[in-house]
Amino acid sequence: MSEYNMDTKNIPNHVGLIMDGNRRWAKANHKTGLEGHYRGYEKLTNCADWFFSRGVKFLSVFAFSTENWDRAKEEVDYLMNLLKRAITEQTGVALKKGYRLMISGRTHELPGNLPDACRVAMEKTKTGLNGTLNICLNYGGQPEITDAVKRIITDGVPATQITEAKIGEYLYNPAIPDLDMVVRTSGEQRSSGFMLWRAHYAEFLFLQKHWPDFDESDVEFILAEYAKRQRRFGGD
């Protein structure tokens, strides 16, 4: 039995994870930064199971931001190869388990055949009904809104028709609902632009451990913490 008193009737529909702390974990454990990223990837492979088996329907993870290109070339190249591996492997896993994969971000800017891998992953898994894993890749909250505005203008939408709902239709993968809970590891307390539009009423939780140390007990803690909170949506 779980050590956490979790109200299973109050499970968030959509959880977002800012997977922070791979490099700090590596430094603390006398490993290379690249090994830290690999350990972080290994942790991600189990996350969907942990959340979906407890009733969460959507899980969004911040894999690579539009600002991460400023890192050292060796690190960026390694991450791109790791992300391609992750998408390819997770496509097979998703098909086996009935999950749906979505990739959100400026995927057309990714190197090599990574954009094609993203398209294939989404197409092959689009009928999955047992949970949706949304990988935010080459993603930024402000770029997402900027891109939505550009597409609205390109489509000639009259100003009188622009509402919050209309803008939502132009976000990356508009079928993804608003976030209920955003969790960031490593102790940093900021959103870093993660899904700004969809996080407007999300609950936030900041964990002190680095992402490679995240485990299944943390999922239970997150869900128990969410169940305790009183969401007000603008009320007192």
Low-confidence stretches are none
Strand order of the largest sheet: 3-4-2-1-5-6
Content of β-strand: 5-15%
CATH class: Alpha Beta
Number of strands: 6
Helical region count? Answer: 7
Assign the CATH architecture.
3-Layer(aba) Sandwich
What is the residue-averaged pLDDT?
92
The helicity comes to 40-55%
CATH superfamily: Decaprenyl diphosphate synthase-like
Question: What is the straight-line distance between the termini?
Answer: 36 Å
Task: List the secondary-structure elements in sequence, H or E.
Answer: EHHEHEHEHHEEH
Number of domains: 1
Radius of gyration, whole Å: 18 Å
Largest sheet: 6 strands, parallel
CATH topology description: Undecaprenyl pyrophosphate synthetase
Global shape: globular
Structural class: alpha/beta
Task: Explain what this protein looks like in three dimensions.
This protein has a six-stranded parallel beta sheet, sandwiched between helices. It has seven helices and six strands, in the order βααβαβαβααββα. Helix 1 (22-28) crosses helix 2, helix 2 packs parallel to helix 3 (73-97) and helix 3 runs parallel beside helix 4 (114-124). The protein has one domain (15-227): 3-Layer(aba) Sandwich (Undecaprenyl pyrophosphate synthetase), CATH 3.40.1180. The protein is α/β, with parallel strands linked by helices. The two termini are 36 Å apart. The longest helix is centred in the middle third of the chain and has 25 residues, at 73-97.
